[in-house]
Amino acid sequence: MISHPVLLIRGSGNERDAKALSALGIPTVSESFIQITLGEKDVALRLLHLASDIDGWVIVTSRNGLNYWSTLVDPNSLADTFSNNPKLKFAAVGTGTAEALRSVGVPEVLVPAQESSEGLLSLLSTYPASTAIMPAGNLARNILSEGLRSKGWMVHTGVVYVNSPTALVPTAVMGIMRSEFSAVVLRSSSAARALAHFLPTSSLPVICGDASTAATARELTLNVVAVANNPSPESIATLVARTLEE
Q1: Side-chain half-sphere of 60: how many Cα atoms within 13 Å?
Q2: Whose CA is closest to 63, among 55, 71, 52?
Q3: What angle do CA 156, 154, 78 make, to 5 degrees?
Q4: Separation CA 228–CA 209 (nearest Å)
Q5: Which candidate in 56, 115, 197, 207 could, as Cys together with 165 as Cys, close a disulfide (CB 3.0–4.6 Å)?
Q6: Is the Cβ–Cβ distance between 82 and 106 less than 8 Å?
Q7: Which residues of the chain fall short of a pLDDT of 50?
Q8: Alpha-carbon dihedral of residues 169, 6, 95, 48, nearest 10 degrees?
């Protein structure tokens, strides 16, 4: 029986994890430690222009990357560009990002079995070197972009959203200090940085959604106790339940 709730601090999408955890009887508290603002429209339009003509790939590593790109250029413009360029191919770091691409009319999306930047790099490395467009956040790790460049790819990246810690200290910070949570789920490197920003030292158990997030969390000396192999809400909920039971 888990007596204390699990803390969810991502900037958006906490409801999906909360629902999966609730299905396993695990209570949660959701409070964003991150504020997200739009990137520069000119950057988003440059990526859109490239996508309209290239014979290559659009690679999405987060829902936010696609959603904020879409917001900056207009969802209809993005969907029209994708459908009007038959030379475009699409890849996503996981099933969630693939669903986001399908929501704008993309029928086929390449997804690695190991849902991570490393997994996608390994999979794309089996294809001929090409041109790639990658919308991203300001704190995105460059494992995938630099890995592809090292293999001869031409990679165009652009910051379409900006992550930073919230201006006000989240109320959950005091709860962490009072040991009111059993663990925190971190879904991104930006979430790890935000947690460390407010609590540079903490023994709160940290469960990470992927290896990249875990690497950042460990660099920040957070107490990483488990790392998911699959970033789906259901898989992470199962990992949380098993970890807390142990």
Answers
A1: 28
A2: 71
A3: 40
A4: 5
A5: 197
A6: yes
A7: none
A8: -10
